[in-house]
Amino acid sequence: MNNRQYEDEAHTDPIGYRTGEGSEFHRAVHSAEPAEVGRSRAATRHARAAVSRKRRGRILGVVLGLIVVLVVAGGGFFVFDRLSGGPAAPDDFAAGSSGDSVVVRVHPGDTAQQIGAEAVEKGVVASADAFMGAAVQNADIASVQPGYYLMPSNIPASQAVNTLVDPSARVGSVVISEGRQLHDARDVNTDAVKKGIYTLLSEASCIDTTGSGTPTCISYDEFNAAGGVDDPSALGVPDWASDRVRGVPDRDRQLEGLIAAGSWDIDPSASASDILRQLVSESAQTYEDTGILTAGADSGLDPYQTLVAASLVERESLPADFSKVARVIVNRLAEPQKLEFDSTVNYSLDTTEVATTDADRATVTPWNTYAMEGLPASPIASPSVAAVEAVEAPADGDWLYFVTINQAGETLFTRSYDEHLANIGKVEAGFLDSGR
């Protein structure tokens, strides 16, 4: 910006109002209309008084324009401080009259006024103006992040703001890690249970609205039942997956892979169906943003097949090898040759281990790729965006085999079966032994 912004050398105050010679403020203070000739002294005094009133009105108008808009940085909230003294104090609830708690949502980019309006709608505060006034006085408002917050109803605005900025008020936060499955899985070697998505959602839905100390939750069974409806489109399943999802042989598993890995905020006061609809529909958009709808030109797979293959990539390899494992899948499908992935055997058993038994591999299921050619009937986990992108654009190579040889995840690739057998001989002692 040039140092000289105005030819008349007008000054600019900190928020952009011109106050130098030639400005509205300068004219309001220094100019006066000339009195008419021939008036009486009383008329002249009256005229001067009118001019003075007009001058004061101009000055007040400029001063009102200088009321500072308070910007609360970092949290994305813009709070407007209103001129006090004239209007009556905004409606506010009295202390000590709080009721049951309710869930208030903070959307990305919400202003204090918008949060206040939501709080009014939910019965937390009496007016948005009172909430705004309290927000102006609490610098911690900048720390508030988008999400859901449990807040008592019928409370003073200052208490509402104090509650909102308390991290313990946030509810409904859940992290779904890459490769997570809908249902709990047991580690064969340690017997540890890895919580499934439905269990994580159940835990995130727990809230205590009455202050009794005993929270209410949406149960695992409720999520499982909601996810098994006959019409998957009612849960936000996109058109490119609907027909295939309807064909999944186990209704309890039909949403597998359709809830993307990531950090989520769910409304604990919503129903299980509404929560799943939010997660599935927003996940579909996440997958579509990767180019999944058109990626088949390179991989030869349709969008749902891409999702299925990505789940195998996620469960079979580390990110550094995603694109190579994706190429092995594409190459084997083209042969055609069975994929023979242990992860698909584990999926039907709800267990986790690097290796599987001969008996397990011989068991025919819609997911066991040792017992059939082609891809499993559905994804076997929630793939990461990186895994999806790897399948959309696999690495160049003619590999048909790979084996991970140690705990560090070192993986060897080859097209030759004889070389593959030699690579298996390099496996760290005990690494591929089954725990069963």
From TrEMBL:
<feature type="compositionally biased region" description="Basic and acidic residues">
    <location>
        <begin position="1"/>
        <end position="12"/>
    </location>
</feature>
<keyword id="KW-0812">Transmembrane</keyword>
<feature type="site" description="Important for catalytic activity">
    <location>
        <position position="316"/>
    </location>
</feature>
<comment type="similarity">
    <text>Belongs to the transglycosylase MltG family.</text>
</comment>
<keyword id="KW-0472">Membrane</keyword>
<keyword id="KW-1133">Transmembrane helix</keyword>
<keyword id="KW-1003">Cell membrane</keyword>
<dbReference type="Pfam" id="PF02618">
    <property type="entry name" value="YceG"/>
</dbReference>
<dbReference type="InterPro" id="IPR003770">
    <property type="entry name" value="MLTG-like"/>
</dbReference>
<keyword id="KW-0961">Cell wall biogenesis/degradation</keyword>
<feature type="transmembrane region" description="Helical">
    <location>
        <begin position="59"/>
        <end position="80"/>
    </location>
</feature>
<feature type="region of interest" description="Disordered">
    <location>
        <begin position="1"/>
        <end position="21"/>
    </location>
</feature>
<comment type="function">
    <text>Functions as a peptidoglycan terminase that cleaves nascent peptidoglycan strands endolytically to terminate their elongation.</text>
</comment>
<protein>
    <recommendedName>
        <fullName>Endolytic murein transglycosylase</fullName>
        <ecNumber>4.2.2.29</ecNumber>
    </recommendedName>
</protein>
<keyword id="KW-0456">Lyase</keyword>
